[in-house]
Write a structure and sequence with these properties.
Radius of gyration: 22 Å
Largest sheet: 9 strands, mixed
Number of helices: 11
Shape: globular
Helix content: 25-40%
Distance between the termini: 54 Å
Structural class: alpha+beta
Low-confidence stretches: 372-395, 409-413
Mean pLDDT: 86
Number of domains: 2
């Protein structure tokens, strides 16, 4: 790289959120020059020879996100390895009551889809190469962001070289433990759930029929998201949450013992659990940045809000944030304002505030209510299940949140 390069927008973090934002920006305005920087080399973008791995982690893509990905032109490719969620079954361990969200109720083919992260990455990277106004920098380290009157200056380490990158707008998308967020002096509000998630894939004896399960127990919630691309498949992505003091012990059980524990927690709706993949362990916290915007700087993705994974809301909220940010930038530029001007970024935050508030509160309250062994809270969640069955308006709002449409407009059955 030369000693100084100028861009309209620089995105620090080339994961799913950063790559999606780069594509949304490039597609919306081909005149914008966009830099996408990441600490890791970008993986092979050959989508012709992709073989899904049983151990690969996956992401739930909500119905509302599918619309964004369709507009972006990548959904047709993504759907090649997508498993449709036709129903979401919500239940409470040891109790008969439960709730069911069915795509047919809302005239949809699916309430969402589950796609291996590796496939999402390959499709997005392949699409990035189709835009001449996107330039990829990896592996590089962005060591600092220094505000300037009309933009920001990034100090970038590439190998042994230190170069400067000048941009009108710097987008921080470097993850939940964002080093740049800390370097900017932006504090975070942290709510520690005292839980640890074990994320893995499992197989079982009966077909999943496109049903996703959210099951709540006194030890914590678990989610099973269908995989295998067909309703007849017999495997799911598992998010199993446990108290922190026992999670690592459970994660290190041998396969037979782990499957026995899972069977006891979940029950027999999918028959017998037969196989478990590589297990990934994460301590769970709700992390929200106290500031998402500054003049010529914006935080997106997990750097802005890091949610509990069991509700499957994180990436979907971030994708809606990205779409809203692009819309606000276009509106600002049309009115003669510069990219990254504080009033433009404030417009973005104002537009997206309700969606963020509803989604974050939904995820947080769902986990806290359904992870408790307290008798009053157990009674309250049973009333919630009754509400899902007997009160269409309550069920519709719950479904809208699950499908990623609640922060904008409620769907109608």
């Amino acid at each position: 790289m030369p000693d100084l390069i100028s861009f309209d927008i620089a995105i620090i973090g080339g994961g799913m959120v950063g790559a999606s934002l780069a594509l949304l920006l490039a597609r919306q305005n081909p005149a914008w020059q966009i830099a996408l920087l990441d600490a890791q080399p970008f993986s092979d973008s050959d989508t012709q020879h992709f073989q899904p791995s049983f151990d690969s982690r996956s992401t739930a893509i909500a119905y509302g996100s599918v619309e964004i990905l369709q507009d972006l032109g990548v959904w047709q490719s993504l759907s090649q390895h997508a498993t449709a969620i036709s129903q979401v079954h919500v239940s409470d361990a040891g109790h008969f009551m439960g709730g069911l969200i069915d795509a047919n109720t809302y005239g949809l083919n699916a309430v969402g889809y589950v796609i291996p992260n590796a496939w999402i990455g390959r499709v997005l990277l392949g699409e990035l190469h189709n835009y001449t106004n996107i330039r990829l920098f990896a592996p590089v380290q962005v060591q600092s962001i220094k505000p300037r009157q009309l933009g920001a200056l990034l100090l970038v380490k590439s190998g042994e070289d230190i170069v400067e990158l000048q941009t009108k707008l710097a987008v921080v998308a470097d993850g939940g433990d964002s080093p740049l967020r800390r370097a900017l002096g932006i504090d975070s509000q942290i709510k520690d759930y005292g839980q640890t998630a074990i994320i893995t894939n499992v197989s079982y004896s009966e077909p999943h029929k496109g049903v996703a399960y959210e099951r709540f127990t006194a030890q914590g919630p678990l989610a099973l998201l269908p995989l295998g691309e067909k309703a007849s498949a017999k495997e799911s992505a598992l998010v199993l949450t446990l108290p922190r003091d026992t999670a690592h012990e459970i994660a290190e059980l041998n396969d037979a013992e782990f499957l026995h524990h899972l069977q006891a927690r979940f029950g027999n709706r999918l028959g017998r659990f037969l196989k478990v993949g590589k297990r990934h362990v994460y301590d769970l916290k709700l992390v929200t940045a106290t500031e998402q915007i500054r003049s010529h700087i914006v935080l997106v993705g997990n750097a802005a809000h890091f949610l509990h994974p069991v509700a499957g809301q994180g990436f979907n909220l971030s994708l809606r944030d990205c779409q809203c940010l692009v819309d606000a930038l276009m509106t600002g530029e049309a009115s003669g304002k510069s990219l990254g001007e504080l009033s433009v970024l404030q417009d973005y935050l104002d537009r997206q505030a309700l969606d963020q508030q509803i989604t974050i509160e939904f995820s947080d309250k769902l986990v806290r209510l359904f992870s408790s062994a307290s008798l009053p809270l157990i009674a309250l969640r049973h009333l919630g299940f009754v509400g899902l069955d007997l009160m269409p308006s309550v069920k519709t709002r719950f479904a809208a949140q699950t499908m990623g449409t609640a922060g904008r407009a409620y769907i109608s059955p």
